[in-house]
Amino acid sequence: MTVERPRQDSNLRTRLRRPVLYPLSYWGVSTSIVAVGPPGPRPVGRRRALSSASVSSLAGTTADGDPSEGPPQRQLLPLTAEIGPAGSLSVGGCDLVELAERFGTPLFVYDEAHLRARCREAVAAWGDGVAYATKAFLCRAMAALAHEEGMALDVSTGGEMHVALAAGVPARRLVLHGNNKSPAELARAVELGVGRIVVDSFDEIERLGHLTADLRGADRPRVLVRVTPGIEAHTHEFVRTGHDDTKFGFPLATGAAARAVAVLAGQPGLDLVGIHAHIGSQVFEVSSFEQAADVLSGFFVPLDLPELCVGGGLGVAYVNGERAPTLADWAEATRRACWAAGVPRATRITAEPGRAIVATAAVTLYRVGVIKELPGVRTFVSVDGGMSDNPRPVLYGSGYEAFVPREAGALRPRVVRVVGKHCETGDTLVAEAHVPDDLAVGDVLATPVTGAYGYSMASNYNKVPRPPVLFVAEGRARVAVRGETFDDLLALDQPLG
Ligand code: LLP
């Protein structure tokens, strides 16, 4: 099933200006958003949309209801974000401008309470077995936090497995993924007794067969078969995985999935416990998940296995006006679709969200270094990070908001392009950022919703050191990952002897 849609672009403003070739509801966007329309006239004489007090009053709109010129909406900010009496934003009781002074910029600031709340929400929605997809953001502090809050951890490489284990997460709480797990990765997983291995290919079955030939009973690794349900989720093609033309899993359509199940059932050293599928990432439409659940169930029910994992992929709002389903909505809709398709109530139906756990928990702080006004063209605002700490705009055309934490409730009537410091024209962070009129060189500029796939995909392009990562809670800022130094850039570099 294919639905035509353009490349992922979370920037609602850009989207609304495009010819509408598709129903907006494909993104699960509510009709109230459709009514928003293009930016209206600029409000005059009001610099700040709200004077201070509670960030819950961040309606994110101007008086005339325009979401683009208003401050970032509450739903885009971490749970403990608060505007102080002077108008500046704090997270976890720490003032963001002060954090930028103290730790330097760029800086990732994660709200610990937010992370914990999301993990708890996931466990409440899905039950035991729900796994945090560590690819979204992983360091030892994050792995330990997710484990403490009752989540299992999905690791997709030996490296992610290593970090999770180093954080003290027991192997039995890990789910190992990957379309090309090496013999060494599989051997370590089997030896340590990881909780689940999600089998992705016939080659892998063969490798596992050799590794487990002598194992019996409870010593056998529990495995799930990853299948591709033939669904095209409504998301960017690079992060779509449920359709047939993908490197992941065994297609249902060709019979490969059924053959994989049969081959696995004949392996005495492996304990086949279930089926797994993941249709893609940043999926806004609950109906995509329902559709996948329905197709999967048709395959799953006759197998009479105890577990069904529907993967991750729940979308999150990145810009004003976007609305995403909650973890509870997603779980509820998926379970109902599975049950309606005949999956027994006793089946462990589970999932592995990544983005929905961490994305909104973090903001990235940058310092504005250059403002270049090109009359008749545009204004470029250069900050001290860029595509090395957030490659998502370049890779997927993803949209973000930008705001000035010293006055987080300020209106943002000025449209600029926020760019990084890399030697590349495409090094854009926010293509069409709305910022306050008085944005100046030296200001701290923040982008919200940068907790997922930012730090985890960060690079040292142009030998830019990776920024530090802070966890903030109750007025305390702790360094979860220290910032790289110039010397770190030489740490692996070997003079040729
Ligand atoms: N499970 C599997 C098997 C996955 O492949 C993924 C993501 C997840 C779970 C978690 O998906 P989430 O809940 O985070 O959407 N770099 C891209 C996203 C790539 C996702 C890859 N797999 C981005 O920045 O949007």
What does this structure look like?
It contains 13 helices and 20 strands. It has helices at 12-17, 31-34, 96-103, 112-126, 140-148, 158-166, 183-192, 202-211, 256-265, 286-300, 327-340, 355-358, 392-396, and strands at 82-83, 89-91, 94-95, 107-111, 131-133, 152-155, 174-176, 196-199, 222-228, 250-251, 271-276, 307-309, 348-350, 362-374, 378-383, 414-419, 428-435, 444-448, 469-473, 476-481. Strands 5, 6, 7, 8, 9, 10, 11, 12 and 13 form a 9-stranded parallel beta sheet that branches. Strands 4, 14, 15, 16, 17, 18, 19 and 20 form an 8-stranded mixed beta sheet that branches. The protein has a 3-stranded antiparallel beta sheet with strand order 1-2-3. The structure holds ligand LLP. Residues 133, 135-136, 154, 177, 239, 278, 281-282, 311-314, 352-356, 392, 396, 453 line the site of ligand LLP.
Which structural class do you get from the secondary structure elements? alpha/beta
The separation of the N and C termini measures: 57 Å
- Whole-number total of structural domains: 2
Low-confidence stretches: 1-54
CATH topology name of the largest domain: TIM Barrel
| Overall pLDDT score | 88
**Integer-rounded radius of gyration:** 23 Å
Q: Could you name the CATH class of the largest domain?
A: Alpha Beta
Q: What's the shape?
A: globular
In DSSP terms, counting alpha (H) and pi (I) runs of 4 or more, how many helices? 13
Largest sheet: 9 strands, parallel
In the CATH hierarchy, the architecture of the largest domain is Alpha-Beta Barrel
Helix content: 10-25%
Number of strands: 20
Strand content: 15-25%
- What compounds sit in this structure? ligand LLP
CATH superfamily of the largest domain: Alanine racemase
